Amino acid sequence: MKPASMEAEPAGLARLVPTQKRSRERYERILECAAAMIAENGSEAFRMSDVVERSGVPFGSLYQYFPDKTAIIGTLAERYNAVGRVCVQQELAAVENRADLRPALWRIVDGYYRMFMDEPVMRDIWQATQADRALQQLDEADGEFLAGLLLDTLRRIAPRRDPAALAAVARLTMTLIAAAVRHAITLKPKEAERMITLFKRMLPEDTAALA
To answer: For 40-77, what is each residue's pLDDT tens digit?
Structure first.
């Protein structure tokens, strides 16, 4: 039985998430230091011993929360995923008809691009998710969640369309948005902005009509 001060991490790869203030502060310190090291040198450059040295958290406490550095990266990835989900939910919740959808998708594209640019560590974390199978699964689950949000919107504004076709459109649309943004962040700023603008123009005026 786990201590009353701990609970299982519901959406990440942490072993335990503390609930008591002092333990929670230590947990957050670990993540803060790991994020700083990733931002400085990339996800491949830090070791668990580096986290111990920088955070001042003993090895025993570190491993109590995170079994390895993949768990740390995964937990950070899930936090950024959660921020992205909130943004997508807010934009899609405002869609009242089919004419509203394209502008909402544009704002989602812009929002994701700004988030990656404002938080450079996200780029390193995303690259790390592509190199590890467990982290790939987190990324895939996030994509499915976002596709589900779009599917709910499509069903609301186009109730007569075939549900299976709407599901395919939702999944493909969110996959393309993610791919476009992740490609853009590898480019120089001006080129990236041109690419993002071009991609947004390529999105159909009536996405629901594709189904």
So the answer is: 888 887 899 999 999 999 999 899 999 998 999 999 99
Distance CA 211, CA 163 (A): 8
CB 207 within 8 A of CB 105: yes
Contact (Cβ atoms closer than 8 angstroms) between residue 192 and residue 184: yes
Cα(74)–Cα(164) distance, integer angstroms: 31
| Collapsed DSSP state (helix, strand, coil) of residue 160 | coil
**Quick one: which of 83, 82, 92, 75 has its CA closest to 148?**
92
Spelled out in words, what is the top-level CATH class assigned to the domain 21-69?
mainly alpha
For 159, which DSSP code? T
**Global pTM value:** 0.86
Rg value, the chain, Cα:
19
The one-letter amino acid at 53 = E
Q: What is the CATH number of domain 76-202?
A: 1.10.357
